[in-house]
Automatic annotation (TrEMBL):
GO terms for biological process: D-amino acid catabolic process. SUPFAM superfamilies: FAD-linked reductases, C-terminal domain, Nucleotide-binding domain. It comes from Serendipita vermifera MAFF 305830. GO terms for molecular function: D-amino-acid oxidase activity; FAD binding. FAD binds at T49, S50, T190. Its cofactor is FAD. The keyword Membrane applies. Belongs to the DAMOX/DASOX family. The chain crosses the membrane at residues 6-25. InterPro entries: D-amino_acid_oxidase_CS, DAO, FAD-dep_OxRdtase. Gene3D superfamilies: D-Amino Acid Oxidase, subunit A, domain 2, NAD(P)-binding Rossmann-like Domain. This is FAD dependent oxidoreductase domain-containing protein. Residues 9-343 form the FAD dependent oxidoreductase domain.
Amino acid sequence: MQDLKSSAIVVVGAGVTGLTTALVLRREGYENITIVAKHMPGDRALEYTSPWAAVNYAPVSEKGTAAEEWDRISWAEFWRLAHESPEAGIHIQKKISYCLTDSGKDKEVWFKDLMPNYRFLDGSELPQGVKWGKECDTFCIDPAIYLPYLKIRCISQGIQFKRASLSHIKEAFSLHRDSSGPATVVINCTGVLASKLGGVEDDNVVPVKGQLVLVRNECSGMFGMWGAKDWPAGESCYVMNRPFGGGTVLGGSSHQTWDPTVDMDLAKRIMQRAIEACPQLVKPGEGIEGLDVIHHSVGFRPVRKGGPRIEVEELPGNLKIVHNYGAGGFGYQSSWGMASAAVQKVNMAIRGSSEVCTLL
């Protein structure tokens, strides 16, 4: 069996998934790790999803699933970082959610005992037209701080970085720091580009466009509103106050498309709903003209039909790949748990488990 510490590992992708996976590898004891990516923290390419995310912790996973476990592991890590590492850009704050329909109130959620101060709002606390609501303590993350933080942590722990634009996943095997032979394992964290990368070309991965508005206006915490029957399909409402001067994010939308255009009519609806959910954003009597817009943005969530892919695959020539992509809109809040699951697959691949999927 190959020694784990000496195994050469290449992580393809430097979004939140790739960076986190590299750090979990290092925590596991691997010492020869290289991150290879077309885009790095600080870049603003549309196909590089992580910088465009709004980012809070709001699980959509079901009890008893692998996704629940990923979310639990990630919660514990983010909660620790929020208290111990303010430079990570993670801030704990109260989130209030309003529902405009009666449905959903009785649904049991596993995380009600995980997130502090989880409770339903009293009728006197509900704005006009809201049927029910709830609040809890959660966290918001500013990607502009968190992604560079992850990269710095990687560098400080001896993880190498190389810029490269791959046409085929097999190219990654020769890009580790010791080029005397192919990497032991390549981890594919390419996100939405998994649909295009040669040797992967996963047709189940689709780009789901999200549109945001970043404003200088401030609010006390996070707010969300859902359940309106007259909203166009794929539109939602959330307000997230980013920590440490990062502005306030207004969203949002989810539409399957590669169209990078900012829809200004949608932007107006997003801003109007944000004010309804959080009136304190503007002065009394002001509408969206009271919002001080920094910029409008578009990003593409890496949604995978059938759910995220975390598995081992073997290409001809005993080239072993561990896939870790397809998290969609919950890439950040599941990142530490998904990375842990992927590293378990790496261990399995190196130890020669019979569970490896072989491509002929």
